[in-house]
Design goal:
This protein is mostly helical. The protein has one domain (about 35-130): Helix Hairpins. Helices cover about 80% and strands about 0% of the residues. Helix 2 runs antiparallel to helix 3. It is flat. This is Diacylglycerol kinase family protein.
Length: about 130
């Protein structure tokens, strides 16, 4: 059994070590967060539709900004939730709820932004096909 002293408590020694920890974080986010998995599936769907419809390079730029904004915001929301839980534990706290609700609201606003971008990009392309 590993002791507490076996865990890294110092700065990363090199870029590869930092990259490994970052990759671990993305894997943890994907494994533990249902909404991150949902947004990832939605992003893949948007990419497939974009490829099928041959959207322009400019449209791809907007789609990618929207996709990554949602994924990053979902990660930030997860960090906020985990930090609040670390502070209050398994006890109800109105202020903690307020903080978590605001973080979740930011994800929702970002998702609305992404949906608007999707409509702006895909509706004209679909109308040209009809």
């Amino acid at each position: 059994m590993a002791s507490q002293n076996d865990h890294q408590i110092t700065k990363n020694k090199n870029f590869c070590q930092s990259l490994g920890h970052a990759w671990d974080g993305i894997i943890d986010l994907f494994k533990e967060e249902r909404n991150f998995r949902f947004h990832t599936c939605a992003a893949m769907t948007v990419v497939v539709i974009g490829l099928i419809l041959h959207v322009s390079l400019e449209d791809w730029s907007w789609l990618l900004v929207a996709i990554f904004a949602v994924l990053v915001m979902e990660g930030v929301n997860t960090v906020v939730e985990n930090m609040v839980d670390l502070e209050v534990g398994h006890h109800y706290n109105l202020r903690a709820k307020h903080i978590k609700d605001i973080a979740a609201g930011c994800v929702l606003v970002t998702s609305f932004f992404a949906a608007i971008i999707g409509c702006i990009v895909f509706i004209p392309v679909l109308l040209r096909l009809v």
